Amino acid sequence: MNLVLLGIGLAAGLAVIIAGLVVLFGKKMALPGICLTLAGIALIFGMLMLDTKYTYEKRYASNTSEPVALATETPGTEKTAAPETTPDPETTPSVTPEQTVPAGTEEAATPVETPRPTNTPEPTPTVEPGKYIEVHYDASTVVKPSNWNGSTIYLTFDDGPSFVTGEVLDALKKYNVKATFFVVGKELTDDTRQYVKRAIDEGHSVGIHCNSHVYSDIYTSDEAFLNDFNTIESRLRSELNYRALIFRFPGGASNQRSADYSVGIMSRLTVKMVELGYSYFDWNISPEDAMEIIDPDIIAKSVIDNCHSDWKYNVVLMHDFDTMSNTATALSKIIETCLERGFAFDRLTPETTPIRHKVFN
């Protein structure tokens, strides 16, 4: 938040508190004094909460509050039926595969057409088959209960690796459930590389999130995005002998903060990256576990309540950076309850029909 606006808000709150105290103790008017004092406290608290939220979004910006929608199917993806009809979006808290854009948002949702820059670096060319580990669809990785309801849950984790990634892997291993990890290059260190290797060895999908996670660097131009992408893509190949074929845009394809740095960049990149052979995934369920430290039971309830049996694809956004132990703790309850309710679990692969948000920039 702008420091000037924050300062004005805090000063105004303090002034209201002082006025309330004057009325309460000076003029002996209890009710008006108490009301003014409480109003001032509420104003200060509100400004601090807004500043905290803004600071978080500036770092991670998952943008789950933005109007997002529309899963699209790209050529060459899994040949399955389109996502089934979903509940009324006005009464459903999450984005569904077939949700349409709310009335009145069509103009804002129209992709901005701008010329593509020249001399844009391409990601590293496809390596010869068999040289690197790649993850593709394999029916044996699906954990499907006997009472399967036709719906599959895809647990995904952003912003790792960290020691929490190990905790997540422990929870998944208990149920033999496979998941997907979208990694950040700056978090891939000598200490955390072991967790990515373990994820690969245990049959999970590892995708690219970004290298720096700094929006002002990543989204300043198409060239900047691809340079960032190439950095982590190359490291996965050189350090882990792994070729990532899937990825998730920082903030999702629907993020609008990218417009602060390059108007129309998401409209260009969502097309460009698919043309280059990569499949990107957004999400339609988020417990917002990264917004603050949330009790594991609350995280679990949010995921469980928002997984729908009439959605073919339930893609859950969670996080595994180093303060997300509560997310790891919530996994047992999520998996056990959802298996009991007939949901299957699987990892994302290039063949999975992707959930994709509507692009707003």
Spell out the key features of this protein.
alpha/beta; single chain; TIM Barrel; two-stranded parallel ribbon; 10 helices; 361 residues
Shape annotation: globular
The CATH homologous superfamily of the largest domain corresponds to: Glycoside hydrolase/deacetylase
Radius of gyration from the alpha-carbon trace, in angstroms: 23 Å
Percent range for β-strand residues = 5-15%
Summary, kept brief:
With 361 residues, the protein is an alpha/beta fold. It folds into 2 domains: 57 residues; 240 residues, TIM Barrel (Alpha-Beta Barrel), CATH 3.20.20. The chain has 10 helices and 7 strands.
What does this structure look like?
- Mean pLDDT is 81; it is low at 55-127.
- The protein has 2 domains: 3-59; 106-345, Alpha-Beta Barrel (TIM Barrel), CATH 3.20.20.370.
- With 361 residues, the chain is an alpha/beta fold.
- The protein contains 10 helices and 7 strands.
- The strands form 2 sheets. Strands 1, 2, 3, 6 and 7 form a 5-stranded parallel beta sheet that branches. A two-stranded parallel sheet has the order 4-5.
- Helices cover 39% and strands 9% of the residues.
Task: List the SSEs and their pairings.
Elements: H1 3-26, H2 30-59, H3 106-109, E1 152-160, H4 163-175, E2 180-184, H5 193-201, E3 205-210, H6 215-218, H7 222-240, E4 246-247, H8 265-275, E5 279-280, H9 296-306, E6 313-319, H10 325-340, E7 344-345
Parallel strand pairs: 1-2, 1-6, 1-7, 2-3, 4-5
Helix pairs in contact: 1-2, 4-5, 4-10, 9-10
